[in-house]
Design goal:
alpha+beta; Calcium-transporting ATPase, cytoplasmic transduction domain A; Rossmann fold; six-stranded antiparallel sheet; elongated
Length: 729
Amino acid sequence: MKVYLRGLTCANCAGKIETAVGALDETREAEINLVKQTMEVSLIQGTEEERVLEKIEKIVHKYEPDVEVALEGGKPMQLIGCSCEHCHAGNHCQDRDNHHHDHELHPQHAKEHHHDHGHVGEAEGKMIWLRFGFGGMLFLAAVFLRDTSAALFLFLVAYGIFGYDVLLRALKNIVRGQVFDENFLMSLSTVGAIAIGEMPEAVFVMMFYQIGEAFQEYAVRRSRKSITSLLDIRPDSAEVVTESGIKRVHPDEVQIGDLILVKAGERIPLDGKVMEGHALLDTAALTGEALPRGVEAGSDVLSGCINLDGNLKIQVTKPFGESTVMKILEMVENAAGKKSKTERFITRFARVYTPAVVGLAAALAVLPPLLGFGEFEMWFGRALIFLVVSCPCALVLSVPLSYFAGIGAASKHGILVKGGGDMDTLCHITQAVFDKTGTLTKGEFSVVKIEGEDKEELLFLAALGEANSNHPIAEAIVREFQKTKEIPLDSVAEYQELGGYGITYQIDGKSVLLGNQRLLEREKIEFKPYLGVGAVVYVAKGGEYKGYIVVADTLKEGCREALEALRRKGVQSMVMLTGDRKENAEAMAKELGLDNFYAELLPGDKVRILEELKEKNGLAKTAFIGDGMNDAPVLAGADLGIAMGGIGSDAAIEAADVVLMDDDIGKVAVGIRIAKNTRTIVRQNIAFALGIKALVLILSAVGIATMWMAVFADVGVAVLAILNAMRKK
């Protein structure tokens, strides 16, 4: 189950909550995403969520009393401790001590709830500026008046302004038995500094700590905004066309087959097919592409797109819960919760690191004086510096932020990555295996060659016969002819389909043959066989050979350039799998410069060959890139499944680890670039944070480090690491 923890920003406390919830008898494990302020809890089968929720709430409030806890289990949602005015106005929420209060959280309410808390955030921002402004002036005044009797009073007042909430939280936590948290560490170190006469240091440490906390909260809010802003693509309502007129309803009330009206400037609320009208659609929210797409009667349209001009009447093809916009929201929201191996390691490391450093600080304060290596006051001061350095926030917060920022950067390019682990895998791809149709090619046949003395007559004769067939080759020939003329269907007589051969019909008293090589050989008509790539249709009239038409699935624009870009990103081996004929596959593989190809495959063959390729590739990672419609088993079997043509494809969203929303194979190289940049930033943050902290810990133990250096090693490093995590990928 997913538990929402609004207001949780302390990385240290998050680790403790994870451990405590994971240790419950009813749970297997718990994992907190600090950026999203959510916790994924794996329950023992048969456990009641509401009973576990009560225990979780007690654990959360034991460490963070002001954090609001909410459980979402599908559509119904229980809110605990919600203090927003919107909820109180509707009498939805009750006192925090009453755990049995349910209400349905409507998507519109979710939006308003989000905006209400946005106003609260603005008010908090003003209070922070007032606090730092007034406290900072008192601190500066105390520094200038340091040699006067007023200095002590000014320092204490400034310290109280910056540290009152930290001291209160530390006392409350001590009463609850929760001693070793960041509030206790900061309180002990600054009160200790005051006790040994380092007043300016004590005030500055608390002030800088609060600045760092404020900045961390801002960074988390800024990163989280990329997800909460997705609420803007979730439609609020739909206008249903009924016999009595237009009726405005919530999108989840619209049924499949209903007709909805979408006016210019409005967002399409549900997936469907255009029945009337034509317009340009802004698809940037789904694909990341700025260029509008034109639609008309018969076009498929997706929820989340904006109608730029014209009115459209759309027949709904999917319910709201299964619409593209809802699947994207669910996918992106879940992405932030799937941690990479690095994130999991840092979380485990932080749980050991903080208690270990606190223990070392205590030993540093007590053991040297007992062994006669100096005064207690000197070693106590060094121990205080040790404590200031001990908080692991720089690591625990900046690493998830780095992955989250990377996922957000990818989504802006229309690349949906399902989690930090998939982002890591994307970095290590050295072998790419491609499906052909719909991935490297457009997935639709078109006429690529017409060979004969009279090409216009040749195309006319072929289109006339193929107009009655729904075969993809026939449709391609008809489309080509209809670019300039309409087909006179009533002129065809004695139309006949010959299974395995082709088509015959009569026109102007003469017999016309359309078909393969075997048809012309059977009728003993002399011709020169076509030996190139593609499907060929031979044409004869009145026993005389007229020529042939070649129909083929053509490469996507920019396909060669996209594969070259992958080579530059470290992909060493490229292989194509296809069910097409060997001759066609060989020609395409040669044209694209692929390393190998496998042709005439069934779906089961693709899975088997992928496993063989993975074994050959060893520890390096293999990605399978397919169109997502019929490649679900192969997508799931690869180290990384990348679905092309993800828009509207349920199979792609379910089976793939990465979905390219605009069917652009060039985005694979973009995704690898973003993933590698993200990995670099994560490594930089880990090395920088651990390196600086280790250095200052050593320097503090030997008496070289000052309290100012300790503050930089804690808050300063955290701020710099977060800034690094937030920079452009």
